[in-house]
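ok so for the tutorial part 2 we go from a plain amino acid sequence to predicted structure tokens. step 1 is just haveing the sequence, like this:
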Amino acid sequence: MIYLASPYSHPDPLVREARYEAACRATADLVHAGRVVFSPIVHGHSLVRLGLPTDWSFWQRFDMDHLRRCDEVIVLRIDGWRESEGVRAEVELARAMGKRVEYVAGEAGRD
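step 2 — the prediction. this is what the tokens look like for a chain of 111 residues:
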């Protein structure tokens, strides 16, 4: 199973929405290609709309549990991916566990 790492947290809700949409497109592309994928952004964005926090400190435990169950990590290179505390932590854990990490361009822009 693939863990799709991508940035999310940002003070501007429009940026968060754009990052969510990019994660949805990437997830759909992987599913269309026959891959099994988990995206914490696709899963969590709807829950944020119901009042859950947007920050990494809240989501870290949930995301790390999912990452441990995945075989590889794909990092979606959209605006903010290099600065993202969550993406950085996800990649570090994946590498520490010997999981493959791949980087792919996303549609919401790259930096």
